[in-house]
Amino acid sequence: MTLAFRNEIDITVWLAGGTITDVAVQPRSRPPLTRLFAGKPAESLLPVLPRLFSLCSVAHQVAFLSAIEAAQGQQATQATARSRVTAVVVERLTELLRSLFIGRLALDGASAAAVRAMMQATTVLGGASEGVSEALRREAVAKIKTALLALGIAGEGRALVPGTALAAYLGRCEGEDLLPPPVEPSFLTAADDVDVLNCLLAGGAAYSDAPELCGKIPETGVWARWARREPVLSTAGPAARLEARIAEVARLCAWLDHGEEDLDDGVVASYRLRASQGAAAVECARGRLYHAVALEESRIVNFEFLAPTEWNFHARGPLVRSLKGAKLAAGRRGQDAVRTLIGAFDPCVGFKLDFREVGHA
What we know:
The chain is α+β, with helices and mostly antiparallel strands. It has helices spanning about 35, 50, 55-70, 80-100, 110-125, 135-150, 165-175, 195-210, 220-225, 240-260, 310, 320-325, 330-345; strands spanning about 10-15, 20-25, 180, 270-275, 275-285, 285-295, 300-305, 325-330, 350-355. Strand 1 and strand 2 (about 20-25) form a beta hairpin. Helix 4 (about 80-100) runs antiparallel to helix 5 and helix 10 (about 240-260) runs parallel beside helix 13 (about 330-345). It is globular, with a radius of gyration of 20 Å. The two termini are about 40 Å apart.
């Protein structure tokens, strides 16, 4: 089976002088899951999922397993549930940190070694179905903390160690190269899960391609999670969003170190919607991910998913609202600021960015 889908988004920014007048988003293609897998045993999909979902693959596996269990009226053991949350947290930490060092931020030798060390340590903790011994867990967490400190992330909070490449990069983002317009905050939360899942099962792929909730297209991801803890600016630019990402990296590491407390509302949540219909929501790096399945004698009848990207990169969604009307610095500085802001909305998905002047189409 060949599973090739276009996983990149095309974004065109229209400018009039130094103001963004419009933003066009050409979405990526998504796999037709029900057409691909109808009639197949649910368990047979597990080996296929990593090839289907190269982004946030652990979160997808956890969401699928949780949805299947819910459809079958089963519940994961406490130990399994804990292992799944840990695996999702590890993947989230890895993706959020990795994305900080892609693009304009060049790493020196020591920083590159620290990133590699952190990636190796997280693989120890990242199994979705099996836990690790306490000794291995402590060793891996210690290596992650050491690597983060080398990169400039010391303890919880947004403060970075002065003089590090990450601190210098954040300082460059704090200028006025991009001034977003005021945007009324609207965020997706776990309280929306059942409404979203019912819409997903009713609307299928058409809904997951362009989701909305009561006429709104809320934001999901790091900034939405940050908004549950701190007041957020209606004109947040790239620097504020990067600071929130750095703070979450530190908070995830602290949870792995001594995570007795709940991390977020509904990191992994499952729902039995109707007989033989189950669903799950997982808070992954990009935001809230949904899977919904309907079974008949353990075989797939319906399988739909909704990724966080489809909210944030909706044609009328949070990214477009944050860019439309924004003031840009001239030339490369302004364009780089737009690129950084787009990356701050989604740490995983690739995008192609094009700038055009109004009247020069």
